[in-house]
Amino acid sequence: MTAKGPGTNLGLLFASVSLLAVACGGDHNATTGGVPTAVVPAPGTVPTVAGPTSQPTAPGAAAQNPGTVSTSTGTSAGPTGAPTNVVPPSTTPTTPTAMTSPGTVPATTPTTAPTTTPTAVPTTTTPSTAAPTVVCGDTHGMYQGDEYCILPPPEGQGFQIHWGPSDYDDPDELAKYVINPGQEENIFVPETSGNTTQVYYYPRQYRMRPGSHHMIISEGSTTNPFAATRRLGGSQNESRDNPEGTPAPENKGIGIPLAANDSLTLNLHHFNDTDTPLLKESWINFWYVDPSTVTQTANELYLFAAGQSVPPGGHVVFTGKQAITNQARILSMYGHRHASTVRFTAYLTHNGTKTPVYQDFNWEEPSVFEFNSTTTNPPADPTMKVAGAYSGDLNLVPGDELDWECEVENTTSMTITYGQNEALNSEMCILIGDLIGPALIAFL
User: How confident is the model at residue 296 (pLDDT cuts 50, 70, 90)?
Assistant: First the structure.
């Protein structure tokens, strides 16, 4: 994908940010920071979802005709006119720092009503407000998450990877997928893509029952997603479509190639911190796009920050930095971390000016924000623990830098390690998303 035009101005996301420590026992409701002065736009309407007898439709596509797109035009350019007073990352919490008022409105911000309704909530809603497309995984109320099941795309329009019971009425079959209270596991499952010829895809739908911390779909390695040829998608949310809504004009023509009968690996991390058994189950729908319409290729953004163990009572900030050497445009972004991270923030530095572009406070259901000319993201409110992000095309040019940080508070009696798939006992700090341009992958 190419950006809509040159000279995009990067507006100020937060009116003020601080990193005041709040002891919270590792709870994701803990937060830091000050009150921004930006006005939150009015919430948009909740999307309508299909009923139990409906076939699913690809995100942002008409029913039974997903992925039909047209070409886009324009060239990429980095943001300019960014605010000059922002909070830099640090290795220890800092005192509140005032920030300047918003700068010039980005050139890609629509001057008339956008084609998609702006929203004041994250682009992914929580399970309590976002019903999945189709109800089909009926355990007769025995386990949580029946409502998350989705049917596969219609024949010829995509395929589904499903991991879970094949018969909900067979106790022996169900028992294979039960995770009991206090258990945690990280597994790798070999899969084969459902396309018998080479295709292009882009829209993906992810659904997981409660107790699922993440899913990662990759090519290659069956034991380590980090050693895979490439990641094809993933989610830390129980219910998420990527992308959401109607594609922005500059996002039309996106496709990702996929070889016929491709060897894939599904990495699943489950943990049960409840007092009842949970059922492990996941669904991923890949939707095809017409190859003749593909004019730009989406790739992976995956940046893993360095970290270290945190002793009981420890309060640290893990930071990562990535120099930009190729022109690109970020399509979506979220921060992957674990239970003791109380804040995740990402910044873009352009022409020496560092601007926050993403902030979130919920480690279990991280907010996923999209960046384009028709999506209005809310400003972050650290005081109220409201996630927020920059609005507009998020362009990268050589000489820019991406920074991200995880503020970690260890209020437990144990030492928290780093880099392990243990949601409560270890931490990670990873910036994840899609972009147009070369894949941006680093393990610092």
Answer: very high
User: If 0-12 CB within 10 Å is exposed, 13-18 middle and 19+ buried, where does residue 361 land?
Assistant: buried
Task: Report the alpha-carbon distance of residue 332 to residue 432 in Å, rounded.
Answer: 8
User: Amino acid letter at 217?
Assistant: I
CA dist 250 and 1 (Å) reads 7
Quick one: pLDDT band at residue 421, thresholds 50, 70, 90?
confident
- Say what the pLDDT of residue 443 is: 85
Q: d(Cα 395, Cα 437) in Å, to the nearest integer?
A: 10
Please say if the pLDDT value at position 29 is more than 90. no
**Measured between alpha carbons, how far is 441 from 444 in angstroms, rounded to an integer?**
10
**What is the Cα–Cα distance from 106 to 82, expressed in whole angstroms?**
10
* 85 SS3 class: coil
Are the CB atoms for 135 and 146 separated by under 8 Å? yes
Query: What does the pLDDT look like over 59-91, one tens digit per residue?
Result: 655 333 333 333 333 333 333 333 333 333 333
Determine how many CB atoms are found less than 10 A away from the CB of residue 250: 25
Which pairing describes strands 388-389 and 282-289: parallel, antiparallel, or unpaired?
Answer: unpaired
pLDDT in tens, 309-350: 999 999 999 999 999 999 999 999 999 999 999 999 999 999
Distance CA 33, CA 382 (A): 5
Q: Report the distance separating Cα 247 and Cα 254, nearest Å.
A: 10
Percentages of the chain per state (helix, strand, coil), in multiples of 5 = 5, 35, 60
Contact 193, 264 (CB under 8 A): yes
Give Dmax (Cα) for the chain: 62
Q: Tell me which residue of 431, 393, 427, 389 sits closest to 410, measured CA to CA.
A: 427
